[in-house]
Amino acid sequence: MGILEVKGVGKRFGGLQALSEVTLSVAENSVHAIIGPNGAGKSTLLNCFVGKLIPDTGSVMFDGQSVLGRKPHEINQMGISRVFQTPEIFGDLTVMENVMISCFAKRDGAFRLHPFETVAHEQDIVEQAEQMLMDVNMIDKRRMHAASMSRGDKRRLEMAMCLAQEPKLLLLDEPTAGMARADTNNTIDLLKEIKEKRDITMAIIEHDMHVVFSLADRITVLAQGTPLVEDTPENIKGHPKVKEAYLGESA
Amino acid sequence: MKFLGLSRKDTRFLIIVILLTLATPILLQPFPEGSGLATFNAGYPDLMQRFAIFGIFAIGFNILFGLTGYLSFGHAAFLGVGSYTVVWMYKLLDYNVIWGLPLAVIFSGLFALLIGYVSLRRSGIYFSILTLAFAQMSYNLAYSVLTPITNGETGLQVYGNDAQVLLGANEPTSPHFFGIVMRENFWEPTFGGWSFTFNNGYYFTAVIAIIVFYISLRIFRSPFGLMLRAIKTNQTRLNYTGINARPYTLAAFVISGMYAGLAGGLMAAMDPLAGAERMQWTASGEVVLMTILGGAGTLMGPILGAGFIKYFENIFSKINDQVLHGWFAFLPDGLEDFLIGVSHFFVGKSWHLTLGLLFMLVVIFLPGGLVEGGQRIAGLFRKKKTTGGGGDPEHHPKETPHVAE
């Protein structure tokens, strides 16, 4: 039994069958990658996990409970954190405040009215956030205005915000999309570091095969809305169906 | 030096605000009586009360608009609810404002809960339109259908045959706070050419204004305030961080509605009248202007904005052609008439034109409002210390600007 169990998921947008009969299982403490060419339905699938889309058919179970019909913040409170394709951070706030919000979300849940405490006096939150920033080597940037940072740093910050919640499952949506080679390698290193340091389950949606092969324990290849194969990276590499999906039928 | 749970910097800030508020009757009376510039004096009770009341209104509005970015165009509705509540308490009980004011806050809070619950299902422009629609509905109801409660176009006031069950034999017959009559002055000293008025009503509103300013300061520094600022910056991220933004925005909406109700109640505490026009959309628009002009999202901005607009409304509208003749009398006739002709468009009844131009200038050149202007001036004096450049770690431009020091 994996922590995330997807069974027979289908989603149709008008005349386009974006997903059909997607079944996969993400095992606990593993890195599971979902790869596929453009338009394969990777992002649609991910949006079905986090409550942004509700599939027409099938079920998505997380930790024994269905996520379907729940709101994004409820699903997050169940233990799924998400990293976006373009980093989504609180640009007008400082780096420290960004991470503190995650810590508050973890401690206080989806809503708590606390208008008379003072942020600076919340010792446990401050310590947690500082520890987290040290873990990702950003402690010297804590007072910086988040929007003014480089893209790589924004990605790092977003990752820190997700990790501060100690999620049971971390979803990454093309974490290296649009990055220069150097930034891509930095991100891969960061992800490897996270994987080694913590017992964490990750599901990565990725277009770039290079990123995936160095990280994943298992890979699902998606093409035209259905899973082609699911196997270890070694076996996927030479798989004829994968080549076909990526390079076209003539290859 | 920690005071009331505030940091050292905030304590200093609060003390400055308290001193300025308490010294207002002196500060606003800089010119001697009878001099040509005496027109610009603003230290009379009626106007000072309005500064404090609209300050409260704007401080509350800023908790919603400045922090969450949700622009409400219907806050005047709460102002009206507050006023009606207080006048009703005069009619039913007696002229002591102690009964009406807390109720004004409670009723406007409940009303805000209702309107906010519906309006906050949408964001952006749709939210603004919904609040505007609600406020206009309230205005029209108060004006016509609800006449038994609001006394329609005449406005609600106290009549001789009202119950006033608590009214004692020797009790004052105008609003008072345990015998302190609002419209009376407790001290009217004259020093040389200068004369000052220390009014009960002003000090009553000023003390309340300081208390609610302190509350807003605490909200700004609280985790709740942090969440509100996060809502303004990136609601997507907030949702995917496991936080439900709606109750936070609703709480901010209700709190700002309560501030508006308190301000409306205080209006009726200074002058025992309540009319439907207090709920009109122009009044809602005014508090938006005050907040933006002063600097949305800053602590001091809304107060500055409120003072600025009320000052213009009262002082510039007083300057008529006669006053202008007095100023330009020393010039040759042709030039005098020309200058008066030009000035005529900017003062007296046309003061809105001046305000409009100033508002445009501020929005274009100082997007952060008057507060940003103050910071830039302060920055000029401190130039040596600043290192410049946007990238250094010590530099964090948008951390809640703190000003007016």
Describe it:
Chain B: Residues 392-405 have a biased composition (Basic and acidic residues). Chain B: Keywords: Cell membrane, Membrane, Transmembrane, Transmembrane helix. Chain B: The chain crosses the membrane at residues 12-31, 51-71, 76-93, 99-118, 125-146, 201-220, 247-267, 287-312, 324-347, 353-374. Chain B: It comes from Sinisalibacter aestuarii. Chain B: This is Branched-chain amino acid ABC transporter permease. The complex is a heterodimer of chains A (251) and B (405). The mean pLDDT of chain A is 89. Helices cover 37% and strands 24% of the residues of chain A. Chain A is an alpha/beta fold and 251 residues long. Chain A starts with a strand and ends with a helix. Chain A folds into two domains: 1-79 and 167-251, Rossmann fold (3-Layer(aba) Sandwich); 89-166, no CATH class. Chain B is mainly α and 405 residues long. Chain B contains 17 helices and eight strands. Chain B has helices at 8-22, 24-27, 45-68, 76-92, 97-119, 124-145, 147-150, 200-221, 223-233, 235-239, 245-270, 281-294, 301-315, 321-328, 333-343, 351-365, 369-381; strands spanning 156-157, 176-177, 180-181, 185-187, 190-191, 194-195, 198-199, 273-274. Chain B has a two-stranded antiparallel sheet with strand order 1-8. A two-stranded antiparallel sheet of chain B has the order 2-3. Chain B has a two-stranded antiparallel sheet with strand order 4-7. In chain B, a hairpin with a 2-residue loop joins strand 2 (176-177) and strand 3 (180-181). Chain B starts with 7 loop residues before the first helix and ends in a 24-residue tail after the last helix. The A-B interface holds A 50, 71-73, 76-77, 81-82, 84, 88-94, 97, 100-102, 104-106, 108-122, 125, 140-141, 143-145, 148, 161, 165 and B 5-7, 218-219, 221-227, 229-230, 232-234, 236-245, 247-248, 251, 255, 390-391, 393-399.
